[in-house]
Amino acid sequence: MALGDSYSAGTAILPLSGKGQCGTSAINYPSLVAKKLRIKNFTDVTCGAAKVGDFTKPQPVPSAPPQFNALRKDTQLVTVGIGGNDIKLVELAASCINPAATATSRNCAPRPGQKDKVGATIDAFAPQYDKAIAGIRARSPKARILLVGYPFAIRQGGCPGRQPLGGPDATYIQDKVSQLSRVIKERAEANGVEYVDIESATKGHDACAGAESQLVGVVPTDGQSLTPLHPNAAGQRTMADTVIKQLEH
């Protein structure tokens, strides 16, 4: 069983699954994991733009019921990738974009002495993972639960000549992505479920990497990832491999 947002859905990466209107890819990491491990009864309810509230309430995408509706008492495995939309990660990246970016220009990163509003939002969001885990356990008490972190998006200082982000802004974006993944790991450990470290698996293959090794793009210039900060098809394969390693651990 796969729950989550566009990072898990592989939104708009072709070929699409053809199920519903969530833009779910047929080669997203949950599907690749299910195929590799020969999981017969596999259900993928991941959906682009999903927030944690969409686990229990009808989603804004037409014909997409609450994701938790798919959970069963006999569900054995649940992967969960959620939180980016709740903290408005893509909106943050969009606010940072500057076509004239330099190594020192700053569009979105707080200046010294300014409050880190995004960081505060991430910390405040942490209890939602506790609620989500409890909700899964209540519906699927036998399930092995994996909380999946977010990919490494862009290296410190960025690469202004290749991506339209100033140095401080690139550093800030990645700091917030890393903070969110740390929160996910902390809540997984606190609740006795497993954490999948996607950041380590994708580090060095960020938006500043060469086209052949790039797994994640900030601005979609690679022809594969269609939304900012999201993994491309190769990134989804890396995420699948990382989940499988965790399952075999």
UniProtKB/TrEMBL annotation:
The GO annotation for biological process reads: triglyceride catabolic process
Q: Among its keywords, does the record have Hydrolase?
A: yes
Annotated GO molecular function terms are: triacylglycerol lipase activity
PANTHER family (alphabetical): LIPASE 2, SGNH HYDROLASE-TYPE ESTERASE DOMAIN-CONTAINING PROTEIN
Task: Kindly list the cysteine pairs connected by disulfide bridges.
Answer: 22-47, 96-108, 159-208
Q: Which CDD domains match?
A: SEST_like (cd01823)
Positions of the SGNH hydrolase-type esterase domain: 2-237
Q: Which UniProt keywords apply?
A: Disulfide bond, Hydrolase
Q: Which residues form the active site?
A: 6, 230
What name does this protein carry?
SGNH/GDSL hydrolase family protein
Organism encoding this protein: Gordonia amarae
Fetch the InterPro entries from UniProt.
SEST-like, SGNH_hydro, SGNH_hydro_sf
One Pfam family recorded for the sequence: Lipase_GDSL_2
Question: Would I find NAD among this entry's keywords?
Answer: no
